[in-house]
Each structure stands twice: as C-alpha cells, then as structure tokens.
Design goal:
The protein is of the alpha+beta class and 146 residues long. The chain has a single domain, classed as Thiol Ester Dehydrase, Chain A. Helices cover 23% and strands 36% of the residues. Strands 1, 2, 3, 4, 5, 6 and 7 form a seven-stranded antiparallel β-sheet that branches. The longest helix has 20 residues. The protein is elongated. The chain starts with a helix and ends with a strand. Belongs to the acyl coenzyme A hydrolase family. Keywords: Hydrolase. One of its GO terms (biological process) is fatty acid catabolic process.
Length: 146
C-alpha cells in the first residue's frame, strides 16, 4: 500500500459522519412522509461534513449522482444519515450517503434512501486544489476499500 493509499484509508475512517434526526411535520409532505427535498438537503449536509473532515479544506458540491428513494419515511420516525468517502481523486471526493429509518417505538431499522455526492476542493481563487496536498495522486481516482 502506498503512503497516499494509507493516508486515504486513515482519513476515510476518521471522516465517517453520522447525523440523527426526528421526522416531524414541518419536514413532511402531503403524504405525511419526509419531503424528498428535505432528505436531499440533509444528505448534502452530511456528505459535506464527511468530505470536509476528510481533507479539512474548502469544498463545493459539484454533483449528486443517482439518489434512490427505496422506502417512504413516515412522520414520527427517527432517521440516521451516514456519510462515508468512497472515492478520492486529485481535487475531488465522492461521498456515499445512506439514510436509515427506524420507528420511535420499535427496534429495527432499514435503509430508506441512498446517494452519492461529489465535491471539489477549492483555493482562495475558487479554483480546484489537491484534496491531499503533499501526496502525489495516480492517474486514476482511488476507490476506498472497506
């Protein structure tokens, strides 16, 4: 394993981010389930936190890949959002986010929503900069194992 790969593995473990929220009526839609736009905003937030913790540099969200809404999230549920860096390029990161839903009154949980968000590190001039200064990147982005 190269020094860069070791550093990616170390930072990936340290940067995994979790946010827990309760789903109350102000965040729901006319079906009394979590509004999709709210879910996306929460996912962008937790992915940004994970990406920032990974590189500790200014970042911008550049895209969100496929977002899969597998199960409705009813009002009165607890959700946990888990963000984890899954790919590291020279100036960019990809963060996978999963939302798990659980009842407030029963054990168990299931994955309800998943997606991937891409970020680019930027300097003071708002131009891309390396996410791991001091570590030379290979030609291809590295996928994080784990």
């Amino acid at each position: 394993m190269t020094p860069r790969e070791q550093e990616i593995q170390r930072r990936t473990e340290l940067s995994e981010s979790r946010v827990t929220k309760a789903v109350f009526p102000p965040t729901t839609n006319h079906h009394n389930t979590l509004f999709g736009g709210t879910a996306l905003a929460w996912m962008d937030e937790v992915s940004f936190i994970a990406a920032t913790r990974f590189c500790r540099l200014p970042l911008v969200t550049v895209s969100s890949d496929r977002i899969d809404f597998k199960h409705a999230i009813p009002a009165g549920s607890i959700v946990e959002l888990v963000g984890r860096v899954i790919k590291v390029g020279n100036t960019s990161l990809k963060v996978e986010v999963n939302i798990y839903v659980e009842s407030m009154y029963h054990d168990g949980r299931e994955k309800a929503v998943s997606g991937v968000f891409s970020f680019v590190a930027v300097g003071e001039d708002n131009k891309p900069i390396p996410v791991l200064p001091g570590f030379v990147a290979d030609a291809a982005a590295e996928t994080v194992n784990g």
